[in-house]
Amino acid sequence: MTLTRMKIGLFLSMFICLTSSMSFSQTEKYEANWESLDSRPVPGWFQDAKFGIFIHWGPYSVPAWSPKGTYSEWYQYWLQNKTLFGNGKFSGTEVYDYHTRTYGPHFSYYNFGEMFQAELFDANAWARLFEKSGAKYIAITSKHHDGFCLWPSQEASTNWGFPWNSMETGANRDLLGELKEAMDKTSVKFGLYYSLYEWFHPWYQKDFDRFVNEHFHPQFKDVVNRYQPHLIFADGEWEKTAEEWKSAELLAWLYNDSKAPKDVVINDRWGKGDRHKHGGYYTTEYESGLEGGHPWEECRGIGFSFGFNRNEDLEDYNSAQTLVLMLVDVVSRGGNLLLDIGPDGHGKIPVIMQERLLQIGEWLKVNGEAIYGTRTWDKPYQWSAGKKDYKPEGQHYLGGDFILKQTIDPEPGYAVKEMFFTQNEEAVFAILPRWPEKQLIIKDLKVKKDAKIQVLGTEMQLNWRQEKGNLLVEIPELSVLALPSEYAQALKITGVK
């Protein structure tokens, strides 16, 4: 990559971010159609953030159970439909059998609303943890597919025929409002997850137009105007088209007339078949992610389930090394990682999830310069010899172990990603899953005579030489304890041609 090409690429990125910021400060009106709505650029803060925290929390956090390889937040759906889907082979009645054995055959899912007490919930403690994790934004389930709201939603109070929100049952608190207030004391942006549909709402099942006009739209407008989120993660769109949801009309309101910040970010889940086509940033879920210029985000849990699942064991949780390498892999391809935690029904974040977030935060303290605010380089990573892109077979949802197989623990005959690349205005960064023994070869990288290579987190400058278009870096012998961080080391390379 020539210096000119690098400067042009960075200049264009800066220009896009600048013009995006300018457009948000203007009074431009967006029309209720995709051509107009899609012309709105994804705000630059999202592309700079790189790391966010997803939070699935609601009545399903009380039973907090489903078979391994499935989503526990779908407890009501599994229970009432006697079906199951995920990684593994299931009879379909596992949740129903567990429920009747544990709570009895006549115990309704709606009873979990009263049991969802959240008596140990400390919004300020959550906010401090999220800030220490290095995350730049969060997205909490204001309402999942069961329809239960974490705020005093009038629609969730009257349209169901019984109170179905946290202010009128269970906790008797505005849980969303408490977290919003706590997050506003930090540098972490507050965002919402919101489900368009509700599995068993009577209007959704029998009078869809009424559901949209009298429930979905007014409820969405209420939660946005109350809490003014910087990010909205829509979901549950897949049974109806965007035209049926009247999504374009709602998003035009969001951009033009709502109280949301002018730099509010949305995702792409606003109608059947519209993912990766319309909306804001593109989303993937338990996949390896995307490549390309459009902003995107991969979401997945620290464990497998998004909601807390008491049935999961230690081996079902991703290690800190796995999560850090996953973050680096995603960022090298221009994406963000939205990493999920599942608090329990009492309002406590499981200790192992707290530990993982703090471990990621410690790594980012040292290596954040190679992550935050960066953009893709000429190539996202450098492969060794062998077959590329190992993926396990027979998994609908891709587990986190794939990144270990692609970096430090390859299957026989498969290549590994020897290093990942990012760049900013000042430097190119090479992030190494393994510390080389004597020499590091960075292929197809030319630098100027005064180039410098620094190990982030240290004052250490590495010697180098150019050979046949490759950069050969001398690696000093260091003990594991002498390395500045665990899991991966980042090199800052200035003076790239």
TrEMBL record:
GO cellular component term, pick one = lysosome
Cite a single Pfam family from the UniProt record.
Alpha_L_fucos
Superkingdom, taxonomy of origin: Bacteria
- The feature of type site (May be important for catalysis) is located at 299
Annotated signal peptide: 1-25
One BP term from GO: fucose metabolic process
Query: Keywords, A to Z?
Result: Glycosidase, Hydrolase, Signal
Give the protein's function.
Answer: Alpha-L-fucosidase is responsible for hydrolyzing the alpha-1,6-linked fucose joined to the reducing-end N-acetylglucosamine of the carbohydrate moieties of glycoproteins.
Q: What is this protein called?
A: alpha-L-fucosidase
Species this protein is from: Rapidithrix thailandica
Q: What is the lineage of its organism?
A: Bacteria, Pseudomonadati, Bacteroidota, Cytophagia, Cytophagales
